[in-house]
Amino acid sequence: MKHVTRILDLGPEGVEAVLAQAAAWKQQDPGAIFAGKLLGMVFFNPSLRTRTSFEAVMLRAGGHAIVLDVGSGVWKLEDRPGAVMNADRAEHIKEAAPVLSRFVNMLGVRTFSQGGGDAEDEVDPVINAFRKWATVPVVSMESAREHPCQGLADVLTLRETFGTTRKLPVTLTWAPHIKPLPKAVPNSFLLSAAAAGCEVRVAHPPGFELHPAVRAEAEAYAKATGGSITYTHDQEEALAGSRAVYAKSWGPSAESAFTPADVATLLASYSGWMPTRRHMAQAAKDAAFLHCLPVRRNVEVSDEVLDHPSSRVVDEAGNRYHVQRALLNWMRFA
Asked: Residue 168 burial (CB < 10 Å; 0-12/13-18/19+)?
């Protein structure tokens, strides 16, 4: 039984297999490959692209998706071992996951960071509870640590744009926001790009470091695939000559000394990191722009970048469908 809740579940070989299948099936539809199969989708948090793309995958391939919104028509779920359940969480994942497994062939789970900090996000408690107690494969629709389907779609988009990702110089740049955001998306782009052999430049202000375990994992993938990773606090240095610019906001690291009261002021102080055409001009002439969406226009990214012909954000979102279909097939429905 294969779970995929992190890039580690695939490794570079699995990433290559899924991307190759996604690209092939994008050219020639495989038909009703999931006929008679059910995907249970458990949402702890909102979704637009993820929910629609997974439902579309199942319906177009002859299967069906059952959507469950936790706390809205479905009991609030507890994940903590040994919890005294005397508050608003009426059911434990220890029961919910195996019960749902009796009804469906696979479970998808979407659960954001609960705001407990980098150490808790690294543990990824909710999705790992589903991995532990489910008796069917579990696929991540984003968790506290990673968003693997997004990372796969990002790499597929790069390959469609440039033909290859081997030694492709790409920049992951921090961007400003009105609030601190989780690190799942930047983590997944870094891990996926490294697993695909990119030369990744990561640019962020001081105090916004990604978790050491994520950085170490990405370094291992880069070593295995002939890629590389560099980190800098100089955005212009990271952009110079880059073939692709991936912008995403994320919150301060656990290593920083910032308090919650500092964060709003801190984020505003780095407003100059918002990608504009001036920033894109520092990259290669054919540089593509990527972002996972949703995006706050003229806060996180300027209109002139999002609306420019070099923007691939809609193509990138569309590729979620193709990589998820290939990924579910790779996992093999129970």
From this structure: buried
